[in-house]
Design a protein that fits this description.
The chain is built from six helices and 22 strands. It is elongated, with a radius of gyration of 41 Å.
Length: about 375
């Protein structure tokens, strides 16, 4: 008996092949952390105090008391000019003062005698007047000699050039053995105080309006504004690790640039910063406010604007239109379009297709450790 081929085929139907597994992604709820709104400005650092050290008296430079670029203490002798001629001038002025004081004692004694005789109607008026003039002349000579001595002592002190404050020296500009101070003061070096630094920035008109609005909202006085804390960082630093405070805000805009100049004082205890560096300075605007943060890498952009991919309760991918706020250290603020309970696709975004299911691995979005210092 022959079995039809169709009947044989009907009894051996195979099951349909299984579809590909759902792609695996990592999803996490957004990070709820306060946002400190502010304006970020670019500025340049400068020493809070700088002094040019000069030779104020002529002479040969005898000694340099520091190494180029060294830190020095207040009162430390940095330069020494030959002092023998000036010490001799002090001795000469002291001798002249002693001579004038001795002469004054003699003229004062003579005046006392003439005054006593005049009261007894023995001395003539002429002798009395001469004694009085001699005494007054002697007093003037003593005053002049005292001034000459003081001038000589000052010139002697100028041969020792000391640090007026603790700071860091630049390189010396004159080597020992050279004649300095002849004719005009000779610049010998520059001392800078860098335990704290100025950071001078310019505020444009748009940021200035935001700053003034924050000041009005908080009812701050101009004096209180000078104590507002700021954060600063170098161009290659991912965060703003250097704290400080506002120090100066100009009274009006520069008509040529349309900007306002402001200055902050940055703490520099480890002297990690140096004068002349470009820094980013963030000035806070108001108190911190609640915000939702997601990794900046999770943000997509199409013709309609920024988007996020989220996983709904059914395990399918959904596209969300969002509005963006500021970005810091790789995290982006979402100001609209996202809820705290949403699960945002943070890894495997390239495998997530809106409307299709995914296998979800739970993840977490954490705040950078630098935020504890920055906010």
């Amino acid at each position: 008996m022959t079995v039809p081929l169709a009947a044989l085929g009907a009894g051996c139907d195979a099951p349909p092949p299984a579809g590909p597994p759902a792609p695996r992604v990592t999803a996490a709820p957004p990070l709820a952390a306060p946002l400190q709104d502010g304006i970020v400005l670019t500025g340049q650092t400068a020493a809070v105090a700088t002094v040019d050290l000069v030779a104020r008296v002529p002479g040969f430079l005898r000694e340099v008391g520091f190494a180029d670029g060294a830190d020095v203490q207040k009162g430390q002798v940095l330069f020494r000019i030959e002092d023998e001629p000036y010490a001799a001038q002090v001795d000469l002025a002291q001798a002249a003062l002693d001579q004038q004081q001795a002469s004054l004692r003699n003229t004062e004694a003579e005046f006392s005698r003439q005054d006593a005789l005049r009261k007894q109607y023995v001395a003539t008026q002429t002798n009395y007047d001469n004694a009085l003039a001699a005494r007054d002349t002697g007093r003037g000579a003593v005053s002049a000699a005292q001034a000459n001595l003081k001038t000589a002592q000052i010139n002697l002190a100028y041969t020792r050039i000391e640090a007026p404050f603790t700071g860091r020296m630049g390189r010396r500009l004159v080597d020992p053995g050279n004649l300095v101070g002849a004719g005009t003061p000779t610049k010998l070096g520059t001392l800078s105080q860098i335990d704290a630094l100025y950071a001078t920035v310019t505020i444009n008109e748009r940021d200035l309006r935001r700053l003034r609005a924050a000041v009005r909202e908080r009812g701050m006085t101009r004096e209180a504004l000078r104590r507002v804390p700021v954060q600063a960082g170098l161009s290659d630093e991912p965060d703003l690790p250097h704290p400080g405070h506002l120090d100066f805000i100009d009274s009006g805009l520069d008509a040529t640039t349309g900007t306002l100049q402001a200055r902050a004082v940055l703490d520099n205890p480890g002297r990690q910063l140096a004068p002349g560096l470009f820094v980013r300075v963030r000035i806070p605007l108001g108190p911190p406010k609640p915000a939702l943060w997601v990794p900046a890498a999770a943000i997509g952009v199409d013709q309609a604007g920024p988007t996020l991919l989220v996983v709904d309760e059914a395990g399918s991918v959904a596209l969300r239109r969002v509005e963006l706020g500021p970005v810091r250290e790789g995290l982006q603020v979402i100001t609209a379009g996202l809820r705290p309970a949403d699960r945002v696709v943070t890894e495997g975004v390239q495998h997530a297709v809106p409307g299709r299911p995914v296998a979800v691995s739970p993840g977490a979005i954490t705040a950078p450790a630098a935020w504890a210092r920055a906010d």
